Automatic annotation (TrEMBL), chain B:
<dbReference type="InterPro" id="IPR003593">
    <property type="entry name" value="AAA+_ATPase"/>
</dbReference>
<dbReference type="GO" id="GO:0055052">
    <property type="term" value="C:ATP-binding cassette (ABC) transporter complex, substrate-binding subunit-containing"/>
</dbReference>
<dbReference type="InterPro" id="IPR047641">
    <property type="entry name" value="ABC_transpr_MalK/UgpC-like"/>
</dbReference>
<dbReference type="InterPro" id="IPR017871">
    <property type="entry name" value="ABC_transporter-like_CS"/>
</dbReference>
<dbReference type="GO" id="GO:0005524">
    <property type="term" value="F:ATP binding"/>
</dbReference>
<protein>
    <submittedName>
        <fullName>ABC transporter ATP-binding protein</fullName>
    </submittedName>
</protein>
<keyword id="KW-1278">Translocase</keyword>
<dbReference type="GO" id="GO:0016887">
    <property type="term" value="F:ATP hydrolysis activity"/>
</dbReference>
<dbReference type="GO" id="GO:0008643">
    <property type="term" value="P:carbohydrate transport"/>
</dbReference>
UniProtKB/TrEMBL annotation, chain C:
<keyword id="KW-0472">Membrane</keyword>
<keyword id="KW-0813">Transport</keyword>
<dbReference type="InterPro" id="IPR035906">
    <property type="entry name" value="MetI-like_sf"/>
</dbReference>
<feature type="transmembrane region" description="Helical">
    <location>
        <begin position="198"/>
        <end position="220"/>
    </location>
</feature>
<feature type="transmembrane region" description="Helical">
    <location>
        <begin position="104"/>
        <end position="124"/>
    </location>
</feature>
<feature type="transmembrane region" description="Helical">
    <location>
        <begin position="258"/>
        <end position="280"/>
    </location>
</feature>
<comment type="similarity">
    <text>Belongs to the binding-protein-dependent transport system permease family.</text>
</comment>
<keyword id="KW-1133">Transmembrane helix</keyword>
<keyword id="KW-0812">Transmembrane</keyword>
Amino acid sequence: MKAANRAIDIGTAAGSPLGGIRTKQILLRRIMSYILRLLNAAGLLLLILIFALPFVWMLSTSLKTLPETMIFPPEWIPHHPVWRNYIDAWKTGPFLHYLTNSVIISVSILILQMLTIIPASYAFARYKFVGSGFLFGVVMVTLMIPNQLIFLPVYLELSAFKLLNTHLGLILPFASSAFGIFLLRQAFRQISDELLEAARLDQAAEWKIIVRIMVPMVKPVLVTFALFSFIAHWNDYFWPLVMTTNEVARTLPIGIAKIREVEGVGTWNILMAGNMILVTPILIVFFLSQRNIIKAFVYNGVK
Amino acid sequence: MAQILLKSISKKFKDETVIEDLNLEIKDGSFTVLVGPSGCGKSTTLRMVAGLEKQTSGEIWIDDICVNDTPPGLRDVAMVFQNYALYPTMTVRGNIEFGLKNKGVSKSEREKLIKDISEIVGLAPYLDKKPQNLSGGQRQRVALARAMVKKPKVFILDEPLSNLDAKLRNQMRTELIQLHKRLGTTFVYVTHDQVEAMSMGDEIVVMNKGAIQQADSPMKLYQDPANLFTAQFIGTPAMNIMNMQDVKGLGVRSDRPVGYIGFRPEQGLMNPAQQVEGLVLEGEILTRESLGAENIYQIRSQAGVFFVKAFLKPLESADHVSITVPYNRLFYFGPDGERLYGAEIHAKHVAAGGVLI
Amino acid sequence: MTVWHKLRPYSMVAPAIIVFSVFFIYPIFYMIYLSMFDWNFVSPTKDFVGIQNFVDLLTEPEFRQVLTNTTMYTILTVTLSTGLSLLLALWLNRGSFFYGIVQGAIFSPHIISLVSISLLWSWLMDPEYGLLNWVIGLFGFEKLQWLSHPDTSLISLVIVAVWKGVGYNTLVFIAGLQSIPADIYEAASLDRSRPWTTFIKLTMPMLSPTIFFLVIINMIGSFQVFETIAIMTQGGPVNSTNTLVYYIYEYGFRFFKIGYASAAGVILLFIVGILTIIYFKLLSNRVHYR
């Protein structure tokens, strides 16, 4: 579109009868573009503020005393940062236990998913077998069923298996991922046949072709999926909330949400301190590998 | 070293027959080129020899072993792919080594082989690089090295030069010919480029629509084409073909009906100084291509449009020209396109200009 | 072909298929089955009631309120979120470092737990001491009740959802914009197309698959809103923010009316199913320009 503007510029310049008008026009245009750039920068800044200020506000509140939170208009920088709020938040429940649970559950899910989706997506991408269409249909249907839709029957199922309030109950339903299979299958399909044939001529056994050649080829997609899966399950609130009735298997997000019940409504300083505990690691990870994480989430939309 | 025998091979993909009853002997130590337009079945034939495709019926023999049920890795065949098919996750060394490892070659032996081969193809400085960081020509060499290091009985190359630019392609052509001389192994090479086929092969198999049109040495193929297809496929520009009905003043004696006559563009003599016995065509020059040493003219005559190639002569400026093709340079083909070997001229005219068009 | 060759693909897909069958496919049928019974989870017997649960649900004013809330929430969230993100994408679709930072900033809420976002926004929307009331005060407006008043509670939840989702949508749009080959823009500029015409005649049609995709997945997502409601409003005040999943959750786990909750689940399944079918219909005959 720049080219078009330039073409019009030349047209007007050549058409103007007097040099003076032309310089005036150029000057005017320069001023206009300067103002536009200023407005643009201001807009971008405002945008950043809309998304960053809530987090800054969270940090600020987490370091205030309770009376300080009730000053209106609010103050941004607390006079004496109250680090104790973090200890208080941490002590409202068995947070070390929650943290351990979160790690155990997210990591187990990730490992199991890798073990199930790699062979499945490879088979769907590379083998022809009777019923593959139907079985892939099962994957696609699963891809479309949200957890929020089926939690009730799954709850009853887990209760029948005596898996409520256990780590397994929070892990097994996610031991595989339809989304992961979908993504990886695409990736495996894009690998050229020539490469497989070359490996066959190199006398490589089928498992060796998969492990040594095919899987390394899709590593970027695997990393993408791993990030996606880990963040999703680390953050998950709904499933642990619904599938647990006691502390045995509960995770960090449940613990944070419970601070309010323990400390009472209105103790925003403690609550925000707890929130900082939950948010900070994810935000740090995000800013460290922003590119990969954005790719992990946006991939879904582009493909 | 090995000779390859294909005995009445057929290949069907679902209902479509790609190759029907193909018989071919590839001589031990030859550089055999399969050439033909795309979709002629040349790649499929090659892939069946490698074992990457299974023939629907027929037998493939390498030396004295029928390899019908031998998996590709055990046929003692190495292949260079069109897009090289280098393992992008491995270094150059890893690529070359992979097949050896799978064969169970010992580490010390592997290192020696890799060292030798990388010196031959000039890859020694790049052994620890990934293929992505190499140029097209270097990748090509890795693919060659990977194939050579296994010391196969048969070398299969599937359009290996088609991804290189023109200059590099010429260079690699020469290198491949030298390589074949040095190794003495049977090379089977597929290309759609007849120039490449002519310049490299000592045996050329021309294929079309799943059938072999002619298998011969390059010179035989050029001078003695077996049918219209070969005649028109080999040579640039292709052989001029005219419908017999459109050619006037040519009395041909033949035991079978003549459908077409043909002649090579370089055999048409433009405004000959001496009298030559031959077919005279008068026409108008449509285009002139000057390539330096040679000039190519496109000429329209009443018998149709044809090309004439003249060497080391100034560019013809006249619009109307007379072309004489000596009788012994004419080829005759039946209406089905088969070459008529017995056909002869019985009524000879002396070309002097103004004679019969 | 040995037997193992034939069995290999099946053994490779089996673990995943088993997980899906047990935890996704079977529960769907189980839920449809349960929706036809009256059961309180503890009693040993289930009473078959046919479609009575559905009749009860659809005649229940509370459920109708829930359906209306869910639909309103969905329509508002989807239109605001996709509309805003399209504008943002057109604005932010630039490669420089600073634009990268802005893109990262607006995307960041997407990877934060909904728990954190809900708690944070509860505090931002606090009627007495919240930051939002201070900000609108700067512009001379009265303090709002936000989540605490039935008139503003639903729209407050929409604001949170848009704040969380707009970054993701924007980046998907940007990816869509970048997949449009640059040369068609060059051709258009040589044809002296005005920016607006280029946008309407080229960009929008080329972007339409992305728009469909985002509208549908945002709709599917919005219909299942739960976390923000569970933490911020618990469906209140006076049911003004009670939505389908929260309703199912309450009837299932608080009142133990399993059959009744399952019937509501089947209705949600129906809605999500229709949306999904529409999506795949559009996807299969979607306008391919690539």
